[in-house]
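Input record, target 12 of the design panel.
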């Protein structure tokens, strides 16, 4: 059997709702890796947030983080981390724009290690949505040492690049106008948007906009890993559940949306796991497909 290259999202995919990898999944995945296959994370989490799971499985592969804006290999000290940060000039043009400032309630900036806010959200639904989409744990800011990171990103703070820039828009902001303003300032960024709740933009719901380097997505990082490990599409398998997984699910013939995935992911994926993330869907699919019986 050819070596297989597995990419799995974490939250909603490999992790259960308690944010854990079960003992059953751990055992199956370790046995799969022992057969000589590659098992990689591709996640919206930062490396710091992904590392405990990486170590739990004893991985020695690359780890794709921040939705493809950062590629690491924690097991290899000679591997040079790869980042796709937002250009500083483009960032400060957006940051200084009065039209953007007047329509944005909260600014969020994610770097390699830190998350910066102009002010911490107080609304429960906004905090829950930011945690779901960007894995921002607001409990960390109860620690006074962490609270120092709640500030406007400063021109002097260039130790690590900006991996994503997030706007939480005010109620009833014209989304089409915001796209126009952003594109008029810089037309070389990837723009995505989500609603805070289920009302959606057309019904006046509050909107989140995310800006990334144009190359920073999971699919492009997946292609890098294929080249890095010399594995073809036919031997590449991906698992995901959310909007940020859609491109790689759509591209790969061996794609598996989780049983609990959102409708967009379900619609583009070639396959759907029999079981969801709370019942070891990733591990049991691999066990059924590739493990010797």
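The sequence produced for target 12 reads:
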């Amino acid at each position: 059997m050819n070596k297989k290259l597995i990419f799995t999202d974490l939250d909603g995919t490999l992790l259960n709702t308690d944010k854990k990898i079960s003992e059953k999944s751990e055992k199956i995945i370790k046995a799969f890796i022992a057969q000589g296959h590659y098992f990689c994370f591709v996640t919206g989490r930062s490396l710091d947030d992904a590392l405990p799971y990486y170590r739990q499985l004893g991985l020695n592969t690359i780890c794709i983080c921040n939705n493809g804006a950062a590629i690491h290999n924690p097991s290899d000290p000679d591997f040079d981390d790869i980042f796709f940060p937002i250009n500083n000039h483009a960032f400060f043009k957006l940051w200084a724009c009065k039209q953007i400032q007047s329509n944005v309630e909260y600014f969020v900036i994610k770097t390699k290690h830190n998350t910066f806010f102009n002010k911490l959200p107080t609304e429960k639904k906004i905090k829950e949505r930011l945690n779901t989409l960007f894995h921002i744990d607001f409990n960390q800011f109860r620690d006074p040492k962490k609270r120092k990171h709640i500030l406007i990103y400063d021109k002097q703070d260039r130790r690590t690049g900006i991996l994503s820039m997030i706007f939480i828009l005010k109620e009833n902001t014209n989304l089409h106008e915001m796209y126009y303003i952003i594109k008029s300032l810089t037309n070389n960024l990837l723009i995505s948007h989500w609603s805070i709740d289920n009302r959606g933009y057309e019904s006046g719901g509050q909107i989140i906009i995310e800006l990334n380097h144009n190359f920073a997505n999971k699919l492009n990082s997946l292609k890098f890993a294929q080249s890095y490990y010399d594995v073809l599409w036919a031997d590449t398998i991906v698992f995901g559940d959310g909007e940020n997984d859609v491109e790689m699910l759509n591209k790969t013939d061996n794609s598996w949306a989780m049983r609990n995935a959102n409708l967009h992911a379900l619609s583009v994926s070639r396959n759907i796991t029999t079981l969801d993330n709370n019942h070891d869907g990733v591990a049991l699919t691999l066990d059924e497909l590739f493990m010797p019986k």
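The mean pLDDT is 89.
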